[in-house]
């Protein structure tokens, strides 16, 4: 896979990712899959071997094996999340519908991302007592965000609030990764080779 803007943008495009998973018989959308993978990686799950794919299949595919195409896409997605989490320029972003979609749809996807992140994070981090105050606080905040039920006005103030929450989630995911993902010894590696 080439490291061009087109390849990465395509990989993380919400609509293309969701369509790809639908075509392959999966019920999770692009935001949910990205969220759960991000949670696993930020929580320190190892991506060595294929155990993480078996776990992921239990979480999002009723324990059924992924097709080779889905496996390849998931490995590429995980590699991209790892790389962007390590990016000194803070290049990590949530995979959500584009700004052209309604705010309601983007909020629903954001909540799906947060809920999925918490599931993925919980795979390795079942006891929060040993974590820093900062990580415990962001996880508590994410739990509250995941419970939100929106009746949304499509106005500038609501848009601004949405972007602030997304930015908070983005920074929070990187904070979790810096504390747990980097220190887990998992190396955040997949078998994916980038050229």
TrEMBL record:
Classification via Gene3D superfamilies: YgfB uncharacterised protein family UPF0149, PF03695
Q: What InterPro entries does the record tag this protein with? A: YgfB-like, YgfB-like_sf
Highest taxon of source? Bacteria
Listed GO CC annotations = cytosol
* Xref: PANTHER family: UPF0149 PROTEIN YGFB (PTHR37528)
Q: Which family does it belong to?
A: Belongs to the UPF0149 family.
Protein name listed in UniProt: YecA family protein
Q: Which organism is it from?
A: Pseudidiomarina donghaiensis
């Amino acid at each position: 896979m080439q490291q061009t803007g087109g390849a990465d943008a395509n990989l993380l495009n919400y609509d293309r990712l969701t369509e790809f998973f639908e075509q392959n018989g999966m019920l999770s959308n692009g935001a949910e899959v990205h969220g759960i993978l991000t949670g696993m990686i930020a929580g320190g799950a190892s991506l060595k071997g294929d155990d993480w794919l078996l776990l992921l299949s239990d979480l999002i595919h009723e324990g059924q094996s992924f097709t080779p195409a889905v496996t390849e896409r998931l490995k590429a997605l995980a590699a991209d999340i790892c790389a962007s989490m390590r990016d000194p320029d803070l290049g990590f972003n949530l995979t959500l519908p584009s700004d052209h979609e309604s705010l309601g749809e983007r909020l629903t996807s954001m909540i799906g991302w947060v809920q999925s992140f918490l599931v993925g994070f919980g795979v390795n981090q079942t006891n929060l007592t040993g974590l820093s105050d900062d990580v415990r606080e962001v996880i508590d905040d994410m739990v509250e965000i995941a419970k939100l039920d929106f009746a949304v006005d499509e106005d500038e103030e609501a848009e601004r609030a949405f972007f602030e929450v997304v930015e908070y989630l983005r920074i929070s995911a990187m904070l979790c990764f810096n504390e747990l993902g980097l220190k887990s010894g998992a190396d955040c590696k997949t078998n994916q080779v980038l050229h």
